[in-house]
Amino acid sequence: MAADYQFEKVPSAEELVELAVKAREKAYVPYSHFAVGAALLCSDGAVYGGANLENAAYTPTNCAERTAFFRAVFEGRRNFSAIAVVGGPEGQLVSEWCTPCGVCRQVIREWCNPDTFRVILGRAGSKPREFLLREILPMGFGPEDLGESGPSGMSGGNFVERDGASDCGCGY
Ligand code: THU
């Protein structure tokens, strides 16, 4: 399946936030009525949206960020540049910042370089705010910390570098 959107050049934070706002329309939030949307940018400009999907048993709820990552990873994507996140009460414009929960930060860490991956927050009437993954997940535990037990026997160093080039080598 194709991505939800394909940028031909590096998008602005505002453009990514716009796609997160669109993804938020798909949130399934009958319990919290708090709708979150995410737009995950792959290194070749493809974008996968995500929204939170809740569950009557509550704990199986999937956050917007994880929905976006799981969709993209299932499609074979492994190289990511940024994610935009917007969230707030369902049916209203987003007026406050919505930051990724701890579980989502850890899931992001699985596939992203903490030193380069950008987390972009959006809300109506403000310029987006931007953080590096390492700022919102300091001293995180990642695949390379498993050494020989990690994916393909990784040991030390930087996950993204060892993973090879970006999807298309176009430098996003
Ligand atoms: N939620 C997200 O989808 N992403 C976040 O960054 C924070 C929280 C969801 C989970 C739940 O469906 C609702 O927001 C309220 O916690």
What does this structure look like?
This protein is an alpha+beta fold and 172 residues long. It folds into two domains: 5-140, Cytidine Deaminase, domain 2, CATH 3.40.140.10; 141-172, no CATH class. The protein contains five helices and six strands; from the N terminus they run βαββαβαββαα. It has helices at 13-24, 64-74, 102-111, 133-136, 159-163, and strands spanning 5-6, 34-42, 46-51, 80-89, 118-121, 129-132. Strands 1-3-2-4-5-6 form a six-stranded mixed sheet. The radius of gyration is 16 Å and the shape is globular. The chain starts with a strand and ends in a 9-residue tail after the last helix. Tetrahydrodeoxyuridine (THU) is lined by residues 29, 32, 34, 36, 52, 54, 61, 63-65, 85, 87, 98, 100-101, 104.
Shape: globular
Total strand segments: 6
Instruction: Return the CATH class of the largest domain.
Output: Alpha Beta
Sheet with the most strands: spatial strand order: 1-3-2-4-5-6
The structure class reads alpha+beta
On the 0-100 scale, what is the average pLDDT?
A: 91
